[in-house]
Amino acid sequence: MKFAIDMMGGDNGSLIIVESILEFASKHPEDIFYCVGNVEELGKIKDVKNIIIIPSKTVLRMDIEPMEALHDKESSLFITVDTFLKEQCDAIISAGSTGAILTLATLKIKRIPGITRPGLITPFPTYKKNKKFVCIDLGANTVNTKEELHQFAQMGSIYYSFMYNDAHPKVGLLNIGTEEEKGNDLRKETYQLLKNDPSINFIGNVEGKEPLYGNIDVLVTDGFSGNIFLKTTEGSCKVMSLLIKDAFKKNLLTKIGYLFSKKGFDDLKERMDYKNVGGAMLMGVNGIVVKAHGNSDFKSFTSALNICYDLAKKDIIKQIKEALQSK
Amino acid sequence: MKFAIDMMGGDNGSLIIVESILEFASKHPEDIFYCVGNVEELGKIKDVKNIIIIPSKTVLRMDIEPMEALHDKESSLFITVDTFLKEQCDAIISAGSTGAILTLATLKIKRIPGITRPGLITPFPTYKKNKKFVCIDLGANTVNTKEELHQFAQMGSIYYSFMYNDAHPKVGLLNIGTEEEKGNDLRKETYQLLKNDPSINFIGNVEGKEPLYGNIDVLVTDGFSGNIFLKTTEGSCKVMSLLIKDAFKKNLLTKIGYLFSKKGFDDLKERMDYKNVGGAMLMGVNGIVVKAHGNSDFKSFTSALNICYDLAKKDIIKQIKEALQSK
């Protein structure tokens, strides 16, 4: 398989990404990694057998206007997208601006036929061990129509089916109450579309507290509320982790307690660490495009690479196309 | 002070609320509690000196259409609102349907002059000990205009100022990025209104993960995303608490660890327990109306009573009116 990697997009520069790629490329010697970036910063990976460095000159700002991104043809992201197309890569990964990735990917790689708007999707950990759910859209859009939410439900179901081998994933619509008539017009109308689509296993409205218990598989929502959901979950879990640390540091007794309980808490930390959910796929584009966390560190960028790899291995784009055609 | 209490509105019936009122009324012998409900169920409080039972016949369903609530004049909520007006009470509390409370309160008690739409507001715990922030609207509305968000910012600031003695509370707009141009039209336009209002200490856009760290005082958003924020925070903290419990139960060593660490974790549990945030004020109505959690238990209903009491004691409605008039 071949991967096109934007080495420059993240808030933390190329250094951490270099380390992550170095490890990943050595673990996957049969695959090729096209690493796009400032050549001077990529010295450490220049002699690796399965890494090909593609030079780029500029880096897109995080707050760049999406259309502006189209004009800077020497940016690392622009060249990564070009490399993906030219070398017929299996996937793209970038920690750059969501808006720029969305614009460049949609305009240059195009959308899957029939899809109106791509949406960001990623798996979330839950209370149940080894059980994940996915949420779409996490912020590729700031406003969505009911038809777009319907497509998110379709794409989310296909993603979940193939990634977790479940033929009938349970789909919930994020809302402010569980009854059918809850929420604003967008939710009420989307509810009817989902209810009347036999290809979707729609279980109804779900509130923000529900998905984390692990009782649903696909959470559907617009990009604005999806991003609020993502960031709020991330922030709450992070704050709780800090409070756990503080609780163990309270006094000598609690410190001793930590030594005894460490095993249990290492497990908890590993499961709920959002660095393990480092990448979101831009679903609906005619190619695998993974957006890594803007402020990616080694662990989260590696996690995004893993997501990328799994998606490419399962040939997710072919699966989505086939599933959408058979509808 | 005089309180009008809907004893029947919660999912769990009157039993738990009776216990909570019994304790609260005995702690506040100088205040009068008008308890509205099914007389047969309220036997336990009928002989308490400062409790007056007001009989009601029906209970509004949780999924009742708001306008339908206006027609059932024998419901516990309807009679609670009537009692509030007739007895010139200081506050109302109900665990009933948000929509019904909103409709009855708005139409019978009316709004504070100048306020277009009331919004639900409540304090949230944060990472910093004893530091809270408030969020408005938590779900009284499903759609809001920029002018309504502006009023939420004004009312939220006044609420925070009086409840936490802070003359210049920091106001943040919930958004999907921190830069000025982030989000949809509603956020961009609200941003400008808040930025240009000198009476508001506006610090800009904040993402969902930010408020829990305790760096802002007032989080402003529409009722839909506010409810997603509330429920997601609540769910995440609850799931983390369950995982902490499980971590300590993992094996004999972790169980011993718990005995040592208990002190630290009791403190954590108390701080982040959403039962301590049992009530939200319906801000903008011309009287104190507190909505208790639909599935209130003893602890959360008592917490809602405490919020009610504090708001009445600080004469929050008078403060809001004065502050709005001076603008």
Report on the architecture of this protein.
Two copies of one chain form a homodimer. The radius of gyration of chain A is 20 Å and the shape is globular. Chain A has ten helices and eleven strands. In chain A, helix 1 (14-27) links the parallel strand 1 and strand 2 (32-37). Chain A has helices spanning 14-27, 66-71, 76-86, 98-109, 146-164, 185-195, 223-249, 252-272, 298-313, 316-325, and strands at residues 2-6, 32-37, 51-55, 91-94, 119-125, 132-136, 170-174, 201-206, 218-220, 279-283, 288-292. In chain A, strands 3-2-1-4-11-10-5-6-9-7-8 form an eleven-stranded mixed beta sheet, sandwiched between helices. By secondary structure, chain A is α/β, with parallel strands linked by helices. In chain A, helix 1 crosses helix 9 (298-313), helix 5 (146-164) crosses helix 6 (185-195) and helix 7 runs antiparallel to helix 8. The model of chain A has no long low-confidence stretch (mean pLDDT 93). Chains A and B meet through helix 7 and helix 8 of A and helix 7 and helix 8 of B.
